[in-house]
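Hey, sorry for the delay on this. The queue was backed up all week. Below are the sequences that define the complex (chains, strands and the ligand SMILES where applicable).
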Amino acid sequence: MAKVLVVTSGKGGVGKTTTSAALGAALAQLGQNVVVVDFDVGLRNLDLIMGAERRVVYDLVNVVQGDAKLAQALIRDKRVESLSLLPASQTRDKDALTPEGVERVVGELREKFDWIVCDSPAGIERGATLAMRHADIAVVVTNPEVSSVRDSDRIIGLLDSKTARAEAGDKIEKHLLLTRYDAGRAARGEMLKVDDVLEILAIPLLGIIPDSEEVLRASNLGCPVTLHNPASAPARAYADAARRLMGETIEIVVPIERKGLMSRLFGRSVA
Amino acid sequence: MSLFGFFSRQRTAPVARERLKFLLAHERALDGRSDLAAILQEEILAVIAKHITVDRDKVHVKLDRGSSVSTLEIDIEMPGAPDLKGG
Ligand SMILES: Nc1ncnc2c1ncn2[C@@H]1O[C@H](COP(=O)(O)OP(=O)(O)OP(=O)(O)O)[C@@H](O)[C@H]1O
Ligand SMILES: [Mg+2]
């Protein structure tokens, strides 16, 4: 049975697109047939993060509006065979996506893929609600910071009320993915701890992605971080999260700071 | 900066945590995602408990939402001889 997974957050810039690419690639590497779909119409970026920006011909809006066939718009990844991308369009027309059109396209994707990973735009408007509309599973991307936690709480409320599943009286599976986690700052009491966020949001934890320069490096090269440097801390955290989505039980380890006291003192004096 | 300040100034996360817990309890209630009367009951109890010993079941909070007027009824039954703490 195909699964539709939405990567959502409310707040912008917390790591949804990074997560969509990394989780999509990791699931594909586990042998799953995966499509990552960019719902950020007008601000598409998933193509760039996946390194497919020069191969975009047709996009989601073309398919939704019936101007292109799904097969014409899908871009197959050059590194992982079972990974595809459905890009967003750059149109400024806010109403380019219709609820009926999105429902039809998601239905078609369900027939072709095991996982449909929907990269949601920020906000709680039409774009975000359309991205979550047909989801079976939601990954709520949250940074350990007050405004991100508050917005995630809003999004959790929408997932429980505005999705097709919620309206039919079914449960939608929700997972928290804590990203840009800085173990040192959490230990020093400068940043919310994992337990704080879990207690407040009260949904199960899918993983903790450390704040890492590897993520920027991977995006510079147009390669999901899980493919670019699989041994790096963020890549391993994303790969474990993908396995958990597949039903494996893998213990979640809270990252701890590796720096010694001296480097911390010096590190602070220049900051 | 004093040595004390050097070590204590950074611990702002606990404040963030408390602010969030308080804020989200109210936002969830406004969304109809949780019961405002229950939240108020807990918070009122906590405030009273600082000064007076009262039973949980002696504090009643009732919220009636009408189309034009909503009422909030708070009924606290005090012990016969107030047992004031720290008095
Ligand atoms: N774990 C991480 N470590 C370091 N930087 C990160 C991490 N995750 C994301 N970033 C950086 O944060 C920025 C925002 O990431 P991203 O584009 O994935 O967020 P988004 O939620 O999709 O944003 P938007 O809401 O605008 O769509 C990018 O510069 C990205 O490289
Ligand atoms: Mg994005």
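The beta strands of chain A are 3-8, 34-38, 75-76, 83-86, 115-119, 137-142, 173-181, 205-210.

I'll add it to the shared folder too.

S.
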